[in-house]
Specification:
With 906 residues, the protein is an alpha/beta fold. The chain has 35 helices and 31 strands. Strands 12-22-21-14-15-16-17-13 form an eight-stranded mixed sheet. Strands 24-25-26-27-28-29-30-31 form an eight-stranded parallel barrel, surrounded by six helices. Helix 5 packs parallel to helix 7 (180-198).
């Protein structure tokens, strides 16, 4: 990048006295918080921060900004003047640390170099000034070791091996037992490693050390580990890191010195108290590296009460100032406490909820801010059962963590066996290469689902999440043989049908045998089995209950459920659903009814077709009566039949084999031959884009009108029983208003007939799914015939991107994520720029035509935390998701409504 393309910023370097905690974009989290602590008058070693803008210029162009060197020199001069000594001077050297510091905390992912300024000459001056020769040479060997590994790219094991040899020669086990003479020899050995591995001497010029260390920190932004961490944490890749140059303070000056990490509350539980670790006579990396055992922070009161009392006061100051759990790094140098870092601390999901409510009770934050301190992802973690961390396990594989939770059961390899064994009281795990709609009964019966193929949006994953079932998909190292009813794991061991296995849907891990499971009290609360305020109520449940109440008071978006039967509907209602946003009627036609649908599709005559419809009508009506009863008084959006046609037809290969075998044996096969001819006639190369949805209703006379009649008669029956059914009829896969108009005209006629026959006035709204780009682009026209839109973002994502959801995750999504093309799968979180633009445009166009048009979403995105925020911003009225994701959607809807008032707490 040429010089004139550098960002127009006033400067690239800020002294700690110049910044504040709100400048994280520019100074990074560490730099902004060092500046904030400096402003608070806390004991922070003087220093300065090189901004993220300088890093971005460097990463884009391969060279530092032209003005950077002069700015660093000016700030270094000011630091030297303040400290009364110069960087690396011979008699009394100023030493500095060079540390990374991105906007969002990335602990351990990027680089740090301590003790910069030491050389063969200045180490002597440091020893004289400190009155401790051992300390000086220990600091020098640390510099060479860190510089060699971090800046020069030398394998860190080489330095560790040399250190171990030095300890062996002295017959000691810890580095603190090495004397000054031993450390001098170690410095010589380290310098030889540098010369051999880097092809150059360790730099003796302190400014060269600092400049090279700054570049190394910039470069560490793009290391593999840093990129992987950012992908996992959903941190943007274009932020860059700041670099903090801080005057050194030393915790390795003897027993009256040390270093530690402190938390203002327990990050695991959220409880208040003294939490952290302390290590005497050590520098900061010793605590992190674990090379020596730390002592609990509470022991510091006995070791150095003055410093302990001061630290407790500072911790209280910081928590009250940041109004949150703070994570603190500190050093004590000969009895003087120094603060090296503070940040809003990472915490477990349970701690997040407890701390948020505690801070509300303390008056530090209000409900609006409390909602910004928790997330739907954290709530989801709390809802799923989990394995006991202390259990002994035998891991045999790992796949994609498709649906969280912990499941244990006997391995079964087909749905029939899963149902049969489950009815006998057995707990089973359904193991398949991949699942399809025929496996639904087995999936319902199973404790969890394990497949060797597929990704997070495969059939198994989507259905499992909808049911709240644990699921691990795409465990490719497991060889599943459904015919022989067994699975071979790495190493050749065979898992036979009936062998117990355990799967962890939160990590994707697969275990042999039974791993003990710990249930979630949060789900017991949502199910109504645990009541906040009761004597035995879990403290965490109390916190979750309060946060959900906050969210429900604040949110604008209503939350409905995707549910296909009364059982799911009742569960959804317990979880707080305000209606059903998607009832998929095709799920009602699987199992015993599939043959009736098959006969309907393949019917040659009107009589055959009417016979099938007549048989289906009472079954459908019963479905809807049960659903309306479960959701009495709440809206129920019923999607008319929308399967790809092949899901209701016999497999063409199996049918061909049956016909061929019958012919070879000269057995009667007229029916099979007729069926095969029909299947050939209806066979589609791409059934997802073929005869389905509204097209199926238009091509097969009577299919949709049968369903509408069943809905209308069920509603009339419930009204007669003093119920309050609120049915909404949704037409799927509409691409043009003419399709909707034809179906609507037929539906209105059927509804009128039912009203006349029953004497019941029915109010049945008729709308459509917006799941094709053309529907979104012509939404203004379609709204003339639709009373509501529900965005089917699963299919809309497929058709906008040109992806087949069942195929692409397994084939190239991993590569796309690794290359940064995707930050996250567009099937997991809505693609705001592409799919989202169509949603916004369709919503606006629809409401221009029909201002009272109701807008919702019923794709998988309806329960995704980030997507819920988008739907709030886009002005939708509701989201719909699987029952187990309803609490997540409720919480995120509340957060979305208050987001502008909250602060950034990643």
């Amino acid at each position: 990048m040429s010089e004139n393309k550098e960002p127009h910023v006033a400067k690239f370097v800020y002294d700690f006295t110049e910044g504040n905690k709100d400048l994280k974009d520019l100074l990074g989290g560490k730099g902004a918080n060092l500046a904030e602590m400096t402003n608070l008058g806390l004991p922070v070693p003087p220093g300065f921060t090189i901004t993220t803008e300088a890093c971005k210029v460097y990463l884009d162009s391969g060279a530092e900004p032209a003005a950077l060197r002069d700015e660093v020199s000016a700030h270094l001069d000011a630091l030297e003047s303040r400290m009364g000594k110069k960087l690396g001077q011979a008699d009394d050297p100023l030493l500095v640390s060079v540390r990374s510091g991105a906007k969002f905390s990335m602990p351990g992912m990027m680089d740090t170099v301590l003790n910069i300024g030491l050389s063969d000459e200045s180490v002597q001056g440091l020893a004289q000034q400190a009155g401790d020769e051992r300390f000086a040479w220990d600091s020098y060997r640390r510099l060479i070791q860190m510089f060699g590994k971090t800046v020069l790219g030398i394998d860190g094991e080489l330095f560790e091996e040399a250190l171990e040899k030095a300890k062996e020669a002295k017959q000691v086990t810890v580095d603190t037992d090495l004397a000054a003479a031993d450390l001098k020899k170690l410095v010589t050995a380290f310098k030889k490693i540098v010369k051999k591995e880097a092809g150059r001497d360790f730099p003796q010029d302190p400014r060269e050390q600092m400049d090279l260390a700054v570049k190394a920190v910039f470069d560490s932004w793009n290391t593999d580990r840093a990129k992987l961490y950012r992908r996992q944490e959903r941190i943007p890749h274009d932020l860059g890191t700041a670099v903090n140059v801080c005057s050194m303070v030393f915790g390795n000056l003897g027993p009256d010195s040390g270093t530690g990490v402190a938390f203002t509350r327990d990050p695991a539980s959220g409880h208040q108290g003294v939490y952290g670790d302390y290590l005497q006579n050590a520098q900061g990396e010793d605590v992190v590296a674990g090379i020596r055992n730390t002592v609990p922070l509470a022991d510091l009161e006995r070791i150095d009460k003055k410093s302990y009392d001061q630290l407790m006061q500072i911790m209280e100051t910081l928590e009250n100032h940041y109004k949150d759990l703070c994570d603190i790094e500190f050093t004590i140098e000969r009895g003087q406490l120094w603060m090296l870092q503070t940040r809003v601390g990472k915490r477990t999901a349970g701690a997040a909820f407890r701390i948020a409510t505690q801070l509300v009770d303390q008056g530090l934050i209000d409900e609006t801010e409390a909602l910004q301190r928790v997330s739907g992802a954290q709530l989801a973690q709390l809802m799923f059962p989990r394995f006991d961390d202390g259990a002994k396990v035998e891991q045999v594989g790992r796949g994609i963590a498709a649906s969280p939770g912990a499941a244990v059961g006997k391995a079964v390899f087909d749905s029939y066996t899963a149902v049969k064994w489950s009815r006998s009281g057995e707990k089973v795990i359904l193991v398949r290469r991949e699942t399809n709609p025929d496996d639904l009964d087995g999936m319902i019966a199973a404790e969890g689902i394990l497949t060797s193929r597929g990704g997070k949006t495969s059939h198994a994953a989507v259905v499992a999440r909808g049911m709240g079932k644990t699921c691990v998909c795409g465990a490719e190292e497991l060889e599943v043989d459904t015919k022989r009813r067994r699975m071979t794991v790495p190493g050749g061991r065979v898992v036979e049908e009936g062998d117990v296995i355990s799967i962890d849907g939160s990590s994707g891990k697969v275990y042999l045998g039974e791993v003990p499971v710990v249930p979630s009290p949060v789900v017991e609360y949502f199910e109504g089995r645990m009541h906040p305020g009761a004597d035995d109520a879990d403290e965490l449940v109390e916190a979750v209950h309060r946060m959900m109440a906050f969210a429900d008071r604040k949110r604008r978006l209503r939350v409905r459920a995707n549910a296909d039967n009364a059982e799911d509907a009742l569960r959804a209602r317990r979880f707080g659903a305000q209606g059903i946003g998607l009832c998929r009627t095709e799920h009602m036609f699987l199992g015993d009814r599939r043959e009736l649908v098959e006969r309907l599709i393949l019917a040659d005559t009107q009589d055959e077709r009417e016979e099938s419809l007549k048989a289906l009508l009472p079954l459908q009506k019963k479905d809807f009566v049960e659903l309306f009863e479960a959701m009495d008084g709440l809206p129920v959006t019923i999607r008319l039949l929308d399967p790809p046609l092949h899901e209701f037809l016999p497999d063409i290969t199996e049918l061909s084999v049956r016909v061929a075998l019958a012919e070879s044996r000269q057995e009667p096969h007229e029916n099979e031959l007729r069926l095969l001819q029909a299947v050939h006639r209806l066979h589609e190369q791409n059934p997802m884009l073929g005869l389905r949805g509204v097209r199926l209703g238009l091509v097969i006379p009577g299919l949709f009108t049968m369903q509408v009649r069943a809905i209308a008669e069920a509603a009339a029956e419930r009204r007669a029983a003093k119920g309050d059914p609120r049915a909404e009829i949704m037409i799927p896969l509409v691409g043009t208003v003419q399709e909707l108009e034809i179906v609507r005209e037929e539906a209105d006629q059927v509804i009128a007939e039912v009203q006349a026959a029953t004497g019941t006035q029915l109010k049945l709204a008729i709308g459509t799914m917006i799941e094709l780009p053309r529907a979104a682009l012509t939404a203004g026209q379609i709204a003339e015939a639709a009373e509501f839109f529900s965005f089917g973002t699963n299919d809309l994502t497929q058709t906008v991107w040109g992806f087949s959801r069942d195929d692409v995750e397994a084939s190239f999504f991993t590569a796309y994520l690794e290359k940064g093309i995707f930050g996250v799968s567009p099937f997991e979180t809505i693609d705001k720029d592409g799919v989202g633009s169509l949603v916004r445009a369709a919503a606006e166009a629809g409401r221009r035509t029909r201002p009272d048009l109701k807008l919702g979403v019923c794709g998988e995105h309806g329960g995704d935390p980030e997507s819920v925020h988008f739907f709030h911003e886009a002005g939708l009225d509701y989201v719909s998701c699987s029952p187990f994701r309803i609490p997540v959607a409720r919480l995120e809807a509340g957060r979305a409504a208050t987001e502008s008032a909250g602060s950034d707490h990643r």
